[in-house]
Write a structure and sequence with these properties.
430 residues; alpha/beta; Glutamine Phosphoribosylpyrophosphate, subunit 1, domain 1; 5-stranded parallel β-sheet
């Protein structure tokens, strides 16, 4: 098997094979080597990807809870890819694009990719000599770490995932100002950027007020003034990555910090009671996902998704197949979680199983940049475990209040709450 690695993967030559490890996991190199000698699957936690090429012919790959470092593989098992740009001779898979269109151009689920012969290794899954299987359910019927630990977890994930000189994109919202609050308190010397077109708006007002209150300087940059050479068309999510990358270039920086995952609020006042209906079926559940996702403006979506978009395609065979696969995918999850008798936990798992896929797609652009280095403090496994498994009432799941930050910071008199004085999330300032 041939592995196409990138800068995120560190190579380790062991006595029984070759290990490529991206990020950090909770199992040391020597222990991994011993496990792989027995063809055992490690139950790793952390933000990582593993590729093992054994001297005995056993090959193995594994990714974390959000595909922080995604892996794709040929169906025949001959090649693994760490960057989508490494895939050659692409035979377009129209079902993939139909599924993306059904999901508002944001994501897909399952193993499909834009190429018919290449598959995606999913979150919480591993690849054993070409066969993909799940090694854990990181969304569980439990309440996650106790609230008494939330402060320590928030400080730890921000401390470990921020470094002096990194550029933090400060929108003025609750995710980015939480990172800034803690990093500044820890004495981290970050650079701060607020993306703006120069017009007064709640985001910029909140950012200026916050920066004054805690005593930091912010660069206000309009990245749309300069033409970008970044090719977004090869990547899978029409995110805000391009303007962020332009800002890093303008500051001659190679390292950025994002607020991805955050509190991962999902759902609506309409969804929650519907999900708790005793006789809800998987097709109803799938339609809930399809009709309640945040719709994106087509002008910012990838041309690969929308150049061939017409109403007639709604009745095209690719859409029928994509819809069928969505139902089958959610059904497989629902069967696992439906054994939960507690309606509260069942509701949480139903919401979060979809959110896990959505959040993993949001990280794709960051991982595919071979030049820039990114840290995602709020996508760290410890924070992910807290957010995905805590009680949905504590999350204020459909109010966008970001309650867990307030819970974690409840005894910190230095934590500035300016962002909570303004409206809900708006994304990049336009």
């Amino acid at each position: 098997m041939k592995f196409h690695h990138n800068k995120n993967f560190k190579y380790h030559e062991l006595w029984n094979g070759h290990l490529h490890l991206a990020g950090d996991c909770n199992i040391d190199i020597d222990t991994l080597g011993k496990l792989f000698s027995d063809h055992s699957v490690p139950t790793c936690t952390g933000n990582f990807a593993i590729v093992w090429i054994g001297n005995d012919g056993w090959n193995f790959a594994q990714t974390d809870h959000l595909n922080t470092y995604p892996i794709w593989y040929k169906e025949d098992g001959s090649e693994l890819y760490s960057l989508w740009s490494q895939v050659e001779n692409i035979q377009r898979d129209d079902v993939f694009y139909a599924m993306r269109d059904l999901l508002y151009g944001q994501m897909t689920v399952g193993t499909r990719t834009p190429c018919q012969t290449v598959k995606r290794l999913q979150p919480d899954h591993y690849l054993d000599n070409g066969t993909q299987s799940r090694y854990r359910w990181s969304i569980e019927p439990r309440s996650g770490p106790p609230m008494s630990d939330w402060q320590d977890i928030l400080i730890d994930v921000i401390d470990r995932n921020t470094n002096d000189g990194d550029v933090l994109f400060l929108s003025g919202g609750r995710d980015s100002t939480t990172i800034a609050n803690v990093a500044h308190h820890l004495g981290k010397k970050l650079q701060y950027v607020h993306i703006t077109r120069g017009k007064e708006n709640p985001d910029t007002t909140a950012c200026k007020e916050f920066a004054k209150n805690i005593g930091i300087e912010v660069n206000y940059i309009d990245p749309w003034q300069k033409t970008s050479t970044w090719n977004e068309h090869d990547y899978w999510h029409d995110s805000s990555y391009n303007p962020k990358r332009t800002c890093l270039n303008k500051l001659n920086s190679k390292s950025g910090i994002s607020g991805e995952l955050g509190v991962s609020e999902s759902g609506s006042k309409k969804i929650n009671p519907i999900l708790q209906m005793p006789n809800i079926n998987i097709e109803q559940l799938t339609n809930i996902w399809l009709t309640t996702l945040e719709a994106r403006n087509e002008s910012v979506a990838s041309p690969l998704i929308h150049t061939d978009y017409t109403k007639d395609h709604r009745f095209y065979e690719f859409y029928e197949q994509a819809y069928k696969e969505l139902i089958e995918y959610y059904e497989s999850h629902w069967k696992h979680y439906s054994e939960i008798e507690d309606t509260k936990y069942l509701l949480k798992c139903a919401l979060m199983m979809h959110q896990q896929d959505h959040e993993s797609y949001r990280l794709h652009n960051y991982s595919q940049d071979v030049i820039m280095q990114w840290n995602h403090p709020l996508a760290d496994y410890k924070w992910y475990d807290l957010i995905m498994n805590c009680d949905i009432k504590l999350k204020g799941v459909h109010y966008h209040k970001r309650y867990p930050y307030l819970v974690a910071s409840r005894t910190w008199d230095w934590f500035d709450q300016t962002a909570w004085n303004y409206g809900g999330p708006r994304g990049l300032t336009q």
